């Protein structure tokens, strides 16, 4: 029995469907924002409040996360005229989004506040870059860096490469199979007016791009951008009085980890990631399974991270991930499209927030693509996913799953349904 199988899901079942995402907000996805992270945070949160139809007096909780490159909630709240009854700023990256949404539902349930804005603000290209090459690249060697940098593992790709290589060794996964993740997400991004990279690429483009660290080519790696993003969570009762159809939260699994996370490769199988454990919490608490999900948002810091998560959350059998991501399943028009905005590989790097925002839009039927807008201001989606089409909307999305990732040893996830 896996450790996560022992989790008592009674409380989570009681919370199922009681909370919803009611507001979403973004800045532009750019390089060289010429803004502070404080400025971008206020921009994104204000957009989310306007999206939901909320005023500063309606928001009394705030959560954020950073990797030494963001801003404190109290500063942003003051800028927006918000007085907080609860706030928390945590250190973290890709496993934070779904975890903080889960925390938001818990603190509202506990009566600590009523409505929570969750934001991420980062100058991820012009200031603090993940690989340590930005304008603010000088960081002390402490914490887990003491273990990793001694082996030359400074950037995420260097640290994750052994897991990717082991999967290729264990299951015969081919680089050209995994390259289809980039190809697919680039097709999706070409239909997204907000995406930083809109150019479609081919498998040959990916494989011919230079090697960064084996087996990762340049185009296997995500785009680095400057941006701010926000989602707002409140009770389903309050959600019904707001501007949009709510995206109802069925379950979250937050920052689930493998038995070892500091040196996760010391606990096998190396090619198994934290989603293997998180899935037992996610599917039990949500009351649905992977076969019920219409669209996924699987973290794509690299093409391989998407494949590994889809596999370990049970969307396909272990070892079949290469086939799953290359057989058309995750494309628009496929059985279960993934990262329809272009994700981190093409739209922008947000540590998971943009993938949640995209799935909220699906549940609202409010995807912003290149389809024409009618006199009533609503898009007339064609659902044409052919080479010349500009639509990325999906018909009648009922259930979505977001699969967050920090590293092979840590992950988070969430299931939402149409309100």
Share of β-strand residues? 15-25%
Terminus-to-terminus distance:
35 Å
Query: Helical proportion?
Result: 25-40%
Tally of individual helices: 14
- Write the element-wise H/E pattern from the N-terminal end onward: HEHEHEHEHHHHEEEHEHEHHHHEE
CATH class of the domain at 11-128 and 225-239: Alpha Beta
SSE-based structural type: alpha/beta
* Total beta strand runs: 11
Q: Topology of this structure?
A:
Layout: H1 10-15, E1 19-26, H2 37-52, E2 61-66, H3 73-80, E3 86-91, H4 96-109, E4 115-123, H5 145-148, H6 156-171, H7 175-189, H8 203-208, E5 211-213, E6 216-217, E7 226-235, H9 236-239, E8 247-257, H10 275-286, E9 295-298, H11 303-312, H12 321-326, H13 343-346, H14 353-364, E10 399-407, E11 410-418
Parallel strand pairs: 2-3, 2-4, 9-10
Antiparallel strand pairs: 1-7, 1-8, 4-7, 5-6, 8-11, 10-11
Concise description?
By secondary structure, the protein is α/β, with parallel strands linked by helices. Helices cover 32% and strands 18% of the residues.
């Amino acid at each position: 029995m896996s450790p996560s199988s022992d989790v008592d899901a009674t409380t989570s079942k009681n919370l199922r469907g009681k909370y919803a995402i009611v507001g979403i907000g973004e800045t532009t996805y750019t390089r060289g924002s010429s803004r502070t992270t404080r400025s971008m945070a206020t921009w994104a949160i204000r957009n989310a409040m306007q999206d939901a139809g909320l005023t500063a007096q309606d928001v009394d909780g705030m959560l954020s996360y950073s990797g030494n490159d963001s801003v404190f909630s109290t500063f942003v709240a003051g800028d927006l005229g918000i007085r907080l009854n609860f706030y928390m700023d945590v250190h973290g990256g890709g496993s934070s989004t779904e975890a903080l949404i889960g925390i938001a539902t818990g603190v509202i349930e506990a009566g600590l506040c009523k409505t929570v804005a969750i934001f991420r603000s980062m100058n991820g290209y012009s200031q603090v870059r993940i690989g340590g090459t930005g304008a603010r690249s000088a960081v002390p060697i402490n914490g887990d860096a003491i273990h990793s940098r001694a082996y030359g593992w400074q950037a995420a790709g260097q640290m994750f490469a052994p897991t990717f290589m082991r999967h290729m060794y264990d299951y015969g996964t081919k680089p050209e199979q995994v390259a289809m993740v980039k190809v697919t997400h680039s097709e999706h991004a070409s239909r997204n007016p907000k995406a930083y990279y809109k150019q479609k690429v081919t498998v040959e483009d990916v494989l011919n791009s230079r090697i960064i660290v084996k087996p990762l080519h340049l185009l296997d790696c995500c785009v680095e951008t400057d941006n701010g993003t926000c989602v707002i969570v409140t009770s389903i009762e309050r959600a019904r009085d707001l501007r949009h159809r709510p995206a109802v939260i069925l379950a979250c699994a937050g920052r689930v980890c493998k038995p070892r996370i500091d040196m996760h490769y010391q606990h096998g199988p190396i090619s198994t990631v934290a989603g293997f454990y998180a899935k037992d919490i996610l599917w039990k608490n949500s009351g649905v399974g992977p076969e019920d999900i219409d669209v996924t948002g699987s973290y794509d810091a690299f093409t391989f991270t998407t494949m590994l998560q889809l596999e370990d959350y049970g969307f396909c059998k272990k070892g079949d991930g290469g086939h799953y991501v290359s057989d058309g399943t995750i494309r628009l028009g496929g059985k279960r499209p993934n990262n329809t905005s272009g994700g981190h590989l093409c739209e922008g790097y947000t540590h998971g927030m943009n993938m949640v925002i995209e799935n909220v839009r699906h549940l609202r039927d409010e995807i912003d693509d290149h389809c024409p807008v009618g006199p009533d201001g609503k898009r007339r989606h064609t659902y044409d996913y052919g080479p010349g089409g500009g639509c990325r909307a999906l018909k009648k999305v009922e259930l979505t799953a977001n699969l967050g990732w920090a590293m092979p040893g840590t992950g988070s996830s969430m299931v939402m349904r149409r309100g």
